[in-house]
Amino acid sequence: MLPKGPSAVTAYLNAAPAPARSRLRALVAVIRAEAPDAVERLSYGLATWHQGENLIHLGAFKHHVGIYPGAAAIVAFADALAGFKTSKGAIRVPHDAPLPLALVRRLTRWRVEQAAAKAARPVSKRRPRRSPTAPVSANIATYNASQSPSTRAVCTALAGHLSKALPEAASRLWHGHPVWFLERNPVVGYSAHREGTRLLFWSGQSFDEPALSPVGKFKAAEARYATVADVDAKALSRWLEKARAIQWDYGNIAKKKGQLTRLP
After folding, report:
1. Measured between alpha carbons, how far is 96 from 58 in angstroms, rounded to an integer?
2. DSSP 1
3. How many Å is the Cα radius of gyration of the chain?
4. 83-129 per-position pLDDT tens digit
5. Which of 86, 127, 156, 195 is the one with CA 20 to 30 A from 21?
6. DSSP-assigned beta bridge partners for residue 171
7. What is the distance, to the nearest Å, from the Cα of residue 28 to the centroid of all Cα atoms in its chain?
């Protein structure tokens, strides 16, 4: 088991397979130089640098190293990343390719600046009023009860978390599955499948959360749970806060002929 705290990244590097170990160490040196005040730790099983928020992650794999500066960085540096295999928030560098040290330096510097700018924004003293946890609707309760025992436990736990975190949301069965809406905009829901329960965030690709997997051609991302023990309450709480703060306008996507715009 890897230790916690600052030594965790060093332990992660030491435990990495030989093809990735030296390459990660070179990348780590660049990140440390550009983010000297960042806290080093493991997050989502990856070497992570945190400064008010997660700045960047590194991962060791058999055939490549993964660099995770977040979805916004992938968009901002799209031209520089043209020769790399990327996904939402991730860059894959095969072991037989040169390390993009100069690019990682720029990415890290940009992420530090973005985090600092966000921290400097004035915080509104007005907070949304929250009522007590909204009750789960009868239709959703029936949906949960109709599942197998293990799936029912996951669905019931998710319904409780969603209703507690989003008491102002309206919830109902939508296309046959439980969905929570904020002012008629779908933000989160779940569905039971043979291989596990799928938790879907309609704007999840904008959350900068590596543990959420992109879904479809718009902005959705998901997590999957085989058992109730897989539900990370702390991560789920963080995702639900972002679900309230970060929304793309799915309610008017048909009116806008498939164009998706972000809500202010």
Report:
1. 17
2. -
3. 20
4. 899 887 889 999 999 999 999 999 999 999 888 888 777 665 555 55
5. 86
6. 180
7. 22
Distances (CA, A) of 125 to 120, 122, 128, 129, 237: 15, 9, 10, 12, 21
| Partners of 190 in the β-ladder | 199
Tell me the percentage of the chain whose pLDDT exceeds 90.
50
Strands across the sheet containing 39-43? 39-43, 46-50, 54-60, 64-68, 90-94, 85-87
Handedness of CA 204, 152, 178, 141 (dihedral sign): negative
Say how far apart CA 215 and CA 172 lie, in whole Å: 22
Amino acid at 133: T
Rounded Cα distance, 73 and 193, in Å? 33
DSSP secondary structure letters along 154-196? HHHHHHHHHHHH-TTSEEEEETTEEEEEETTEEEEEEEEETTE
How much is the pTM?
0.51
96 token code pair: 């037989």
Cβ-based burial of 122 (10 A; exposed 0-12, middle 13-18, buried ≥19): exposed
Residue 234 has which token pair?
Answer: 């702390």
Residue at 5: amino acid letter: G
What is the tens place of the pLDDT at every residue in 155-195? 999 999 998 898 888 999 999 999 999 988 999 999 999 88
* The two three-digit tokens of residue 44, written as one number: 């989502």
Q: Contact, 76 vs 38, CB < 8 A?
A: no
CB atoms within 10 A of CB 94: 13
The separation between CA 158 and the C-alpha centre of its own chain, rounded to angstroms, equals 17
Of the ranges 63-72, 103-112, 167-176, 245-254, which one carries the lowest mean pLDDT score? 245-254
